[in-house]
Structure formats: C-alpha cells, structure tokens
C-alpha cells in the first residue's frame, strides 16, 4: 500500500471571495480540513473597491451564499459595501478557516502542491483556485499608443464622476459595467463605444425580477455546452439599463473602437474622436501565471478548465464565468457549483482514507 504523503493541509482554497467562502462552508460542514487564503487585508475588499454607485443586478433574495440569507428586504439591490459586510459576517458566522493578507505568489506541484506566500511555503494535497471572476483589468492593445497625459483609466479604478476630468468622456465597452456608469447623469458628455449592439432586458418583467424568471425557467443553470447555453453565452444581455434610457440621458453611441494614436480614437465606421478622458469598461482577463505547473495554463496564461476541473490532478477551479452555467460566477448561485465540488472532494477524501491512497487526488 503506498505511503500517505504528508501535507500541511488537505485542501487549500486560493481566494476568500464569494466562491472561496462558499466551498469553505461546505468543506467545514463535511469536516474536511482546509485553509482559505486571501490576498487582501479584509474579506470583501474587492467589493469595497468598486465604484460608489454600484448595485447588484441580482436582488437580495438571489444574492445569498449557502446557509445565510442576505440581510434586508428581498427585493432590494445591494451595493458593493453591502456585499462586503455580508461576506465578513458570513466568514465569522461559520468560523471559516480564513487567512487574510496572504497572497499566493506561486503554485507548484511535486508529490504535493506547494504554495509560496509571504509567511512561507504551504503544502496541500488539493488546491481550489477561487480567485473570482474579476482577474486582471483588460485594455485594448492600442491603449499603449495614446499620449501618456490623456486621462485614461479602467473601470476597475473608477469610483465616482468627480474622479473623471471635465469634458468629453469616451467609455469603451458596452457591457453591464459600461451601461451602469453614471457619468451622463452627472452632467458629463459621454460617448459609448461598443461592438455588436448589446441586447438589453428590463430588471422586472410582469412584476417579477428577471432572476425570478431565470430561476423558474432554469435558464440561469443552463450548461454552457447546450444549445440554450451557447446562445446565452454568445449574447449575454445587459440587465436593467436600456439603450433608450442612455439616449435620454444624452449618451452618444459609437461603433467599436478600433485604434488609437496620440489623443485620437478611430471607430469602425471611419469616424474619429478626441476625448478629454477615456474610461475602459473592457472587462478582465484571467492571468494565472502564478501557477507554475506544466500543462495547467493555456497560451494566454489562463488556467485551462473543464467544468470545475483542470488538467492537473487535485487542482480545481471555482467561481469563473460560465464554468458550469450562467450562475457560476454570480454571488447567489456560485453555491451550487461549490456544493458539487465540495461533495466530490469529500467523497474522494473518504475513499482515500479507506484505501490509504491520499497521494492520488483527482
């Protein structure tokens, strides 16, 4: 019988946001020894570092992690600070084994996984990467060709309209973030550049929140490899803010921004604009190059995933968009994936204990 390989922890979860806390809840209930590492000094810091007026497009009734309802009326739309307080309360309520201010600088694998942290190496039999849906802010390649003194920042760093210089503001990217930013309502002259015209849906339909409908029809749980899943993923709608509402607020729509040089942005229709400031609402990309395991990453430096698994035995991932469904990265729905993964880990741990093969996690 193979000798069991010693590790500091049976499971280490990298990331103490909603996904990390959700799986920690289930692992704790199952009695699986584990540790959650979070890079920030405080739980929920990523939510307090968003723009001031941010509101979830899921109401409180659909914004809870497993085991603890979101406080307040179910039909209210929590802000970023509300979410941060909820996550703090959640970790404390269930006594989750969380270590803050512990960024993982690298992850390697030999017989066990080794995570390099500022306080020293940590070894684990299994690792769950739960670093969240928001990775590294992404900007177009042509952003580097603009003059350095042209005020330009990513929505990740945006807090309030007063942070943006007066004059014409170009918002590049017309997803939910680009639509939500309140610059036009604050009196700015706003141009919004987008690719394909985004599909918008109202927050409430026939008196019910859209997530009531998505839950009842099970669309929020549609797997990405099904026909409806592929359609939803290809044309993910903007919720709650319509194009007509932005027009009424004075927003001028532009086609896709294709190039930039000095202080001039060129668009797909051949027109140009010289804005006084640019706000990149161009989303995020996963930069997992801290993982130094052969075959784990794709050519872009992102972790390769199949559902909740990776090509590396014992290395799992949780909380990324469309891992298993539309809800995989949403606060109120990530618990479903967390439960599935925790159940799998718990079952395999039990089998390992019975068979004495702790060295071979799957």
Q: Which descriptors would you attach to this protein?
A:
about 350 residues; alpha/beta; FAD/NAD(P)-binding domain; 2 domains; seven-stranded mixed beta sheet; 8 helices; 21 strands; globular
Short synopsis of the structure:
The protein is of the alpha/beta class. The chain has helices spanning 18-30, 45-48, 80-93, 176-180, 210-216, 227-234, 243-248, 334-355; strands at 9-14, 34-37, 98-99, 106-109, 113-117, 120-129, 136-137, 152-154, 168-172, 189-193, 200-201, 204-205, 208-209, 238-239, 252-254, 257-261, 264-267, 272-273, 277-280, 284-285, 315-317. α1 runs parallel beside α8 (334-355).
* CATH-level-4 superfamily name of the largest domain: FAD/NAD(P)-binding domain
Task: Give the overall pLDDT as a whole number.
Answer: 90
CATH third-tier fold name of the largest domain: FAD/NAD(P)-binding domain
| CATH architecture assignment name of the largest domain | 3-Layer(bba) Sandwich
Largest sheet: 7 strands, mixed
Would you count the extended β strands for me? Answer: 21
**Integer tally of domains:** 2
Note the run of SSEs as H and E: EHEHHEEEEEEEHEEEEHHEHEEEEEEEH
Helix tally equals 8
Please give the alpha-carbon distance between the first and last residues: 18 Å
Low-confidence stretches: none
What's the shape? globular
The helix fraction, in percent, is 10-25%
| Rg estimate, integer Å | 22 Å
CATH class of the largest domain: Alpha Beta
Which structural class should the secondary elements be placed in?
A: alpha/beta
Strand content: 15-25%
């Amino acid at each position: 019988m193979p000798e069991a390989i010693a590790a500091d922890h049976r499971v280490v979860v990298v990331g103490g946001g909603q996904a990390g806390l959700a799986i920690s809840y289930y692992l704790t209930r199952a009695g699986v020894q584990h540790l959650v590492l979070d890079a920030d000094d405080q739980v929920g810091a990523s939510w307090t570092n968003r723009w001031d007026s941010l509101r979830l497009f899921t109401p409180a009734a659909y914004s809870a992690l497993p085991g603890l309802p979101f406080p307040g009326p179910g039909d209210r739309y929590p802000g970023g600070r509300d979410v941060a307080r909820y996550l703090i309360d959640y970790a404390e309520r269930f006594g989750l084994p969380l270590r803050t201010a512990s960024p993982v600088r690298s992850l390697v694998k030999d017989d066990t996984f080794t995570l390099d942290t500022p306080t020293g190496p940590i070894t684990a039999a299994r690792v769950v990467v739960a670093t969240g849906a928001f990775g590294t802010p992404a900007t177009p390649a042509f952003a580097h060709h603009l003059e350095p003194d042209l005020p330009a920042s990513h929505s990740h760093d945006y807090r309030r309209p007063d942070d943006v210089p007066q004059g014409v503001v170009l918002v590049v990217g017309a997803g939910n973030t680009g639509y939500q930013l309140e610059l036009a309502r604050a009196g700015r002259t706003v141009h919004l550049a987008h690719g394909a015209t985004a599909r918008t849906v109202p927050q409430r339909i026939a008196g019910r929140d859209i997530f009531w409908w998505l839950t009842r029809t099970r669309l929020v749980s549609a797997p990405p490899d099904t026909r409806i899943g592929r359609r939803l993923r290809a044309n993910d709608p903007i919720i709650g803010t319509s194009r007509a509402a932005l027009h009424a607020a004075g927003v001028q729509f532009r086609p896709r921004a294709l190039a930039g040089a000095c202080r001039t942005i060129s668009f797909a229709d051949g027109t140009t604009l010289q804005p006084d400031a640019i706000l990149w609402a161009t989303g995020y990309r996963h930069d997992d190059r801290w993982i130094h395991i052969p075959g784990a990453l794709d050519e872009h430096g992102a972790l390769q995933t199949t559902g909740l698994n990776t090509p590396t035995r014992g290395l799992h991932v949780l909380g990324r968009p469309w891992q298993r469904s539309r809800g995989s990265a949403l606060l109120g729905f990530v618990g479903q994936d967390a439960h599935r993964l925790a159940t799998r880990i718990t079952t395999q741990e039990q089998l390992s204990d019975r068979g004495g093969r702790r060295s071979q996690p799957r």
